[in-house]
């Protein structure tokens, strides 16, 4: 049987995805989970506390790629490894999203977290720093192995990969269209890699 704390988190996450953090009330959370106020407070002190636990869980699944596990010798293999991890992480998140929920709402919750959770920006900044360093390292290795040819600096090439994925996610969210954003990013990165090889 599902742990009570996990059940609360899963139920709250589904509600936040459907309605937004702000629109969900603490009373609604209690009603949906079936817990009394006292039982609820045994696990979480507030709606904010629940939201913070959900965002920590989200980060641990989706936004914390272990770059050390990706190829360190080939940019092509680094990209392939990266997408294997992203697809696996996407599958871990999809089980909690109710049918008909806009997948872009995952990202909207991240924007809410940036505003609500005090240390969230620091966590995101640390992740982005690791991400940038990993891209720079693999681009240096690829350049040294003559896998890629470009006069663009390692840092700027890293930014091209990172910013193209961030832009694809933002465009996907704002368009409201169905589609697989990871597949879109994969296509952009493979084309960018092909240009660097030329």
TrEMBL record:
Residues 2-62 form the HTH tetR-type domain. Residues 25-44 bind DNA. InterPro entries: Homeodomain-like_sf, HTH_TetR, Tet_transcr_reg_TetR-rel_C_sf. Keywords: DNA-binding, Transcription, Transcription regulation. One of its GO terms (molecular function) is DNA binding. It comes from the Bacteria. This is TetR/AcrR family transcriptional regulator. It comes from Arcticibacter tournemirensis. The lineage of its organism: Bacteria, Pseudomonadati, Bacteroidota, Sphingobacteriia, Sphingobacteriales.
């Amino acid at each position: 049987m599902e742990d009570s704390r996990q059940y609360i988190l899963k139920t709250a996450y589904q509600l936040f995805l459907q309605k937004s953090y702000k629109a969900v009330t603490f009373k609604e959370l209690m009603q949906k989970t079936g817990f009394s106020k006292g039982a609820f407070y045994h696990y979480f002190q507030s709606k904010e506390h629940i939201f913070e636990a959900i965002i920590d869980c989200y980060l641990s699944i989706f936004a914390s790629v272990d770059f050390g596990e990706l190829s360190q010798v080939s940019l092509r293999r680094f990209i392939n490894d990266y997408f294997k991890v992203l697809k696996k992480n996407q599958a871990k998140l999809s089980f909690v999203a109710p049918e008909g929920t806009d997948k872009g709402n995952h990202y909207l919750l991240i924007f809410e977290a940036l505003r609500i959770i005090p240390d969230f920006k620091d966590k995101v900044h640390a992740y982005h720093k690791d991400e940038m360093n990993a891209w720079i390292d693999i681009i240096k290795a690829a350049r040294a192995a003559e896998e890629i040819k470009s006069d663009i600096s390692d840092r700027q090439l890293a930014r091209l990969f990172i910013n193209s994925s961030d832009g694809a996610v933002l465009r996907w969210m704002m368009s409201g269209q169905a589609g697989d954003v990871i597949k879109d990013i994969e296509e952009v990165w493979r084309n960018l890699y092909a240009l660097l090889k030329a």
